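Structure first, sequence second, as always.
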């Protein structure tokens, strides 16, 4: 019981929560504005991880300095997929359920192709590098520099995006599109511009999250799937399309995961993730913080 009150677990939960919230934020923006179910979202994180790895090992550049480049690469991938695969779907006038089903299949294909291309290019062998791995002690809490940096950057990105959504006209346009597409179009919002920006932003923050994860964990072509599952659990808990709710749910899931694993074992992690996912779908399908939405 004493270990559960330690600052070490609290710090671990905060770091994991910041990453979960950042990853799920990108997924929520894409779903909220376009109703696209991106099950390849974790693979964007994997691409970001490889970007940081090669940035550091080939040039010696700090992965932190490489994050803007990584974000630009994954954002560019999002823009390319929008024009190649989804623009026609979104402008076709198809019912929302059909768009969601089609996007699920298309993103599944994107995920399989991405994983195998990376595996062929770089092999399936896990890779890692050492960066900011010095340990700092604050009282009884030991913190590595890379995890402190990951938490600080994740929180900075989250705060910046929340401010954009709440304090700028373009952010208000994104929120309006999330709430009701037809009403947003009627009041003169450039729906295609908002969609394009949202997918670029959603993919970009996933790439940043991948770069942050790579500083402390091994990367491999198939590392993305657990993060995809965790992201979907987060946005289901927070309410599909509810950006602020997803951020809160990201930290909530991390605290549940860290403390529950501390009480049981690491083998329980997957059971916890899927159990929470199923429980929320059954007991509160609109999410813990979600409301009924119009399409």
């Amino acid at each position: 019981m004493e270990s559960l009150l330690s600052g070490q677990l609290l710090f671990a939960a905060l770091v994991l929560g910041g990453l979960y919230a950042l990853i799920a934020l990108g997924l929520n923006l894409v779903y909220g504005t376009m109703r696209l179910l991106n099950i390849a979202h974790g693979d964007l994180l994997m691409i970001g991880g490889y970007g940081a790895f090669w940035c550091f090992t080939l040039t010696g550049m700090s992965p932190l300095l490489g994050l803007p480049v990584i974000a630009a690469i994954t954002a560019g991938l999002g823009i390319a997929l929008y024009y190649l695969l989804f623009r026609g779907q979104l402008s076709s006038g198809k019912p929302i359920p059909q768009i969601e089903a089609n996007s699920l299949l298309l993103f599944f294909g994107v995920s399989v192709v991405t994983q195998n291309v990376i595996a062929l290019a770089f092999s399936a062998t896990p890779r890692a590098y050492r960066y900011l791995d010095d340990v700092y002690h604050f009282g009884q809490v030991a913190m590595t520099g890379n995890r402190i940096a990951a938490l600080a950057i994740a929180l900075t990105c989250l705060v910046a995006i929340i401010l954009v959504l709440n304090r700028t006209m373009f952010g208000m346009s994104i929120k309006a599109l999330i709430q009701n597409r037809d009403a947003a179009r009627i009041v003169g919002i450039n729906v295609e511009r908002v969609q394009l920006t949202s997918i670029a932003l959603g993919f970009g923050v996933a790439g940043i999250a991948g770069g942050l994860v790579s500083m402390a964990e091994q990367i491999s072509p198939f590392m993305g799937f657990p993060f995809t599952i965790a992201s979907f659990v987060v946005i289901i808990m927070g309410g599909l399309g509810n950006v602020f709710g997803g951020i809160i749910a990201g930290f909530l899931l991390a605290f549940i995961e860290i403390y529950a694993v501390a009480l049981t074992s690491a083998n329980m992690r997957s059971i916890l993730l899927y159990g929470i996912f199923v429980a929320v779908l059954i007991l509160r399908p609109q999410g813990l913080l979600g409301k009924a939405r119009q399409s």
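Margin note: Strands lie at 135-138, 141-144.
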